[in-house]
């Protein structure tokens, strides 16, 4: 499986989030506490939005994150108000750049931790459901990228939660026809530069870990001496595969079978239920 971080809020240097916390993503790449694999060294990627651009930048590589000088260089010089970071542990597909997260199309970023069970059995049927106009844009061989393009096919740009629900519904229905049990295991992050969605779901009802940060104003009251909390605005949020540190009260588990929306103003948390796509 994998580990990931999604940040939304006050623009900060990427290094403040990726390298400075005690249990940062680089530490998780070597010493994950909650992942299936302790080490996540099958590639990494970051994606970030710049204020003057409508599409995000992406940097991906097949090597481990812990010794990549390009990642260090970018993270210490790029400031962003919304960015993703992902470290990969492959579930069977090749270690290659096109299989590293996050995946991008236009203004959208997508990253995933989990798997489609028996993906090799289901892959052909699922790929045939992708919009023919989108199919040539898929570059890699992962279930994660295919899940993204199925969601795009089912209307992600207009209705992200509904599109992801229809994607999961199709995967589960396809798996049922093939006799594959518990086909979906996922935590997914999705962003468009303004809003951030995070999904936690599995067909067996026992999903991989996912957490979101407590409101900054509440954390300031609990920890008035925490320097980072004084530098960011009250709408700053992080969604993470596992907590970045041990600050009491900082992290909340995303409920099973749910999704959250981080946006300007009021954040939202909703139940998540798969749907069958319309014929």
UniProtKB/TrEMBL annotation:
Gene3D superfamilies xrefs: Glutamine Phosphoribosylpyrophosphate, subunit 1, domain 1
A GO molecular-function descriptor: transferase activity
Record field: transmembrane: none
Alphabetical UniProt keywords: Glutamine amidotransferase
Domain Glutamine amidotransferase type-2 intervals: 2-279
Superkingdom assignment: Bacteria
Keyword Chloroplast among record annotations: no
Pfam hit, one: GATase_4
Record protein name field: Glutamine amidotransferase class-II
